[in-house]
Amino acid sequence: MNNLMTESFERVIGRYAGEGDIESGNGFSPDARDMGMDGFFKKVGEIEKQIERITTQLHKLQTANEESQHVTKASDMKAIKQRMEKDVEEVKKIALKVKTSLEEIDRDNLINRQKPGCEKGTGVDRSRMAMTLALKTKLKERMSQFQTLRQSIQDEYREVVERRVFTVTGTRPDEQMIDQLIETGKGEQIFENAIQGHGRGQIVDTLAEIQERRDTVLELEKKLLDLQQVCCYEENRYSFTLCSWTCQCWSMHKEIC
């Protein structure tokens, strides 16, 4: 699977290999194939597919989170929680696989430098390094979106609790009251007066839903924080090379033109 970036670097490989005809539309020259680019592009394509799978899981989680804002039963909230936990675990599996594949490409890039014409600083080497870094950056950006989702879940949880209290009591809760419900999930005292007017059954159902929602938020927060650790070392290790990568791409662009 080749995206626009892959196709762009295929043309670069043809240029630097010295044999490729860029204008004829050849992807890259026979010499470039001898330089290990066939296997490299295959691995890049597989990683791109896996990152797309992560994107799909992100969209599923975002949809489930939106759905959770409208449920009012503890049983419905529990079902959504189970779905979201399963999706987060799937993301973790995929991310670990991508991380392993990127580490393998790192090793391959160093080994490939031993081939004639592929030494450090050559067109082939710069293309491989730039594409590898682009994949790492793409993965990092995608994973950061899960932390944005985590913050959204927390913020929306607070809003839902506030709405539930207002619906049952008819009174807008203050910050301290909301904090108490979020911290403990228990609100018998808060709803004490409402119990007399609405009946205990309805209040118990509301409290059960709030408790289940609290459990969901806490569990998802833990799993999403764990997910953040999967690729955090990549950020520390490679963030300093982003500027270098940009310069490499600009340099290659000027040589093509």
TrEMBL record:
Q: Which UniProt keywords apply?
A: Membrane, Protein transport, Transmembrane, Transmembrane helix, Transport
InterPro entries assigned: SNARE, Syntaxin, Syntaxin_N
Instruction: Identify the stretch annotated as signal peptide in this record.
Output: none
A GO biological process held by the record: vesicle docking
**Membrane topology per record:** Single-pass type IV membrane protein
**Per its UniProt entry, which superkingdom is the organism in?**
Eukaryota
Claim: S-adenosyl-L-methionine is one of the keywords in the record: no
GO MF annotation list: SNAP receptor activity; SNARE binding
Matching SUPFAM superfamilies, A to Z? t-snare proteins
Q: Where in the cell is it found?
A: Membrane
Protein name (record)? Syntaxin-131 isoform X2
Origin species: Elaeis guineensis var. tenera (Oil palm)
